[in-house]
Amino acid sequence: MGLGGEEARIRVTPKEGANMAEAARSVLETLLNVIGVSASVTSQVRPSGEGQEEDAAPIAFDIKGEDLGILIGRRGQTLSCLQYIVRLIVAHQMKARVPITIDVEGYKQRRDEALRALAWRIAEQVKVRGVAFTLEPMLAYERRIIHLALADHSDVTTQSVGEGEARRVVIQPKEK
């Protein structure tokens, strides 16, 4: 760095136990144990590609067991919070942002398919009637699914309205 500088040699070694996936699994299993939920955590293979959630991560887990509705919560809010908490704890441990996705018995996949079907069904109604339709409040990733599902629709457009937990998607006819 500057005049008279010498070459420097830097050695970088990973921290012990810096396997993020194992750290995330451990944190998740500990949290499940603390809240008294008896379930198993399995790793999911996440292919990268088109049509994948923005927050889809290479580290992904599916929780399997009986009576796990308590982990999903109303409209998936509890699951979203669990994922957020695990991300925070692991990021603190690893001193880096860690992309992690958590699902319960394939809930997110089923919800994704249901939202896409809903989007197209409502879009067809809006097209026929020519009147905008406002959906129920949704989490950000769910609103994104609706927007992406109808992005190339020739007769309708989408827009998010509202604030916070009351944020909704409006499907409306395209102006011609």
Summarize the structure in words.
The protein has 5 helices and 6 strands; from the N terminus they run αββααβαβαββ. It is an alpha+beta fold. It folds into 2 domains: 20-105, GMP Synthetase, Chain A, domain 3; 113-173, R3H-like domain (Ribosomal Protein S8, Chain: A, domain 1, 2-Layer Sandwich), CATH 3.30.1370.50. The strands form 2 sheets. Strands 1-2-3 form a 3-stranded mixed sheet. Strands 4-6-5 form a 3-stranded antiparallel sheet. Helix 1 (20-34) packs across helix 3 (77-94) and helix 4 packs across helix 5. The protein is extended and about 70 Å long.
Tag the structure with descriptive keywords.
176 residues, alpha+beta, GMP Synthetase, Chain A, domain 3, Ribosomal Protein S8, Chain: A, domain 1, 2 domains, three-stranded mixed β-sheet, three-stranded antiparallel β-sheet
What is the β-strand count?
A: 6
Distance between the termini: 62 Å
> Compute the gyration radius: what is it?
21 Å
Helix/strand order, N-terminal first: HEEHHEHEHEE
Q: What name does the CATH topology of the largest domain carry?
A: GMP Synthetase, Chain A, domain 3
> What does the main sheet amount to?
3 strands, mixed
Number of helices: 5
Report helical residue fraction: 25-40%
Structural class determined from secondary elements:
alpha+beta
Shape: extended
Instruction: Quickly give the CATH architecture of the largest domain.
Output: 2-Layer Sandwich
User: Any idea what the CATH superfamily of the largest domain is called?
Assistant: K homology (KH) domain
Low-confidence stretches: 48-55
- Walk across the major sheet and give the strand order: 1-2-3
Write down the overall mean pLDDT: 85
In the CATH hierarchy, what is the class of the largest domain? Alpha Beta
Total domains, how many?
2
The percent range for strand residues is: 15-25%
